[in-house]
């Protein structure tokens, strides 16, 4: 059994007037320690899949299992990082990164010290008494990453966490998040519209079709790219070829639907 398993997962949203089939017959698995990206057209169900895996919503049919247990509600074993950092502006950085621990009843001297250690590893050890409004967007996203990691989740769900950042900050944060996840031996699932980001950060890239989202193709990224930091991966001689392959697959699918 794999670490994360989705079996024939489907989700339909109903209203009084109509229904919307978001995803259909989604089956894939993720190994422990693997980094997998989901890409596809807008509205293809990428974020819906993360919400299902997190337990925030339930599938219409099919099953999702994390480490052998079916997901039926949100669990502390899963961490979520979004495009917006959702830090509380009236709390200090230290209070923000320990809020999850406090809510879960896990705030001890040891867990607090660990959260502060992670913050220091992110280069923000001197910002504990600052407030979110005093930090840049990239700094706030690093704080959000620490808040997520401090509760020690088994699975990290990343929903376009870099898309609101300027390009230079985005590239730096990709490297930082990638190395942090690998060093802590975490399993991660990333949703992104950026093909280059998906290739540079992932072991595999899953391409979803237009709504209802189905798995169109899975790309296994070779070791010479996936074992490098994302910035170095982008500069590898084979990177452009992989980019073109994924791009052409996405383009050919979109053209066939038009």
UniProtKB/TrEMBL annotation:
<dbReference type="InterPro" id="IPR017871">
    <property type="entry name" value="ABC_transporter-like_CS"/>
</dbReference>
<dbReference type="InterPro" id="IPR003593">
    <property type="entry name" value="AAA+_ATPase"/>
</dbReference>
<dbReference type="InterPro" id="IPR050166">
    <property type="entry name" value="ABC_transporter_ATP-bind"/>
</dbReference>
<keyword id="KW-0067">ATP-binding</keyword>
<dbReference type="InterPro" id="IPR003439">
    <property type="entry name" value="ABC_transporter-like_ATP-bd"/>
</dbReference>
<protein>
    <submittedName>
        <fullName>ABC transporter ATP-binding protein</fullName>
    </submittedName>
</protein>
<feature type="domain" description="ABC transporter">
    <location>
        <begin position="4"/>
        <end position="235"/>
    </location>
</feature>
<keyword id="KW-0813">Transport</keyword>
<dbReference type="Pfam" id="PF00005">
    <property type="entry name" value="ABC_tran"/>
</dbReference>
<dbReference type="GO" id="GO:0005524">
    <property type="term" value="F:ATP binding"/>
</dbReference>
<keyword id="KW-0547">Nucleotide-binding</keyword>
């Amino acid at each position: 059994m794999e670490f994360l398993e989705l079996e024939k997962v489907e989700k339909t949203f109903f209203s009084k007037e109509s229904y919307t089939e978001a995803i259909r017959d989604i089956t894939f698995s993720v190994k422990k320690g693997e980094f997998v990206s989901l890409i596809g057209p807008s509205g293809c169900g990428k974020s819906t899949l993360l919400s299902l895996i997190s337990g925030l919503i339930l599938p219409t049919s099919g099953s999702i299992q994390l480490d052998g247990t079916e997901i039926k509600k949100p669990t502390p074993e899963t961490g979520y990082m979004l495009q917006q950092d959702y830090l509380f502006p009236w709390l200090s950085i230290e209070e923000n990164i320990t809020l999850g621990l406090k809510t879960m009843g896990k705030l001890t001297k040891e867990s607090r010290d660990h959260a502060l250690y992670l913050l220091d590893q992110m280069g923000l050890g001197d910002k504990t008494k600052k407030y979110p409004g005093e930090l840049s967007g990239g700094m706030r996203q690093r704080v959000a990453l620490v808040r997520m990691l401090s509760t020690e989740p088994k699975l990290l769900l990343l929903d376009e966490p870099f898309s609101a950042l300027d390009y230079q900050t985005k590239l730096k944060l990709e490297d930082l998040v990638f190395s942090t996840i690998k060093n802590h031996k975490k399993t991660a699932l990333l949703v992104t519209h950026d093909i280059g980001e998906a290739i540079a950060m992932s072991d595999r890239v899953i391409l979803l079709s237009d709504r209802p989202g189905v798995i169109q193709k899975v790309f296994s990224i070779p070791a010479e790219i996936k074992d490098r930091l994302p910035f170095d991966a982008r500069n590898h001689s084979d990177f452009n070829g992989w980019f073109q392959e994924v791009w052409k697959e996405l383009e050919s699918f979109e053209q066939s639907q038009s």
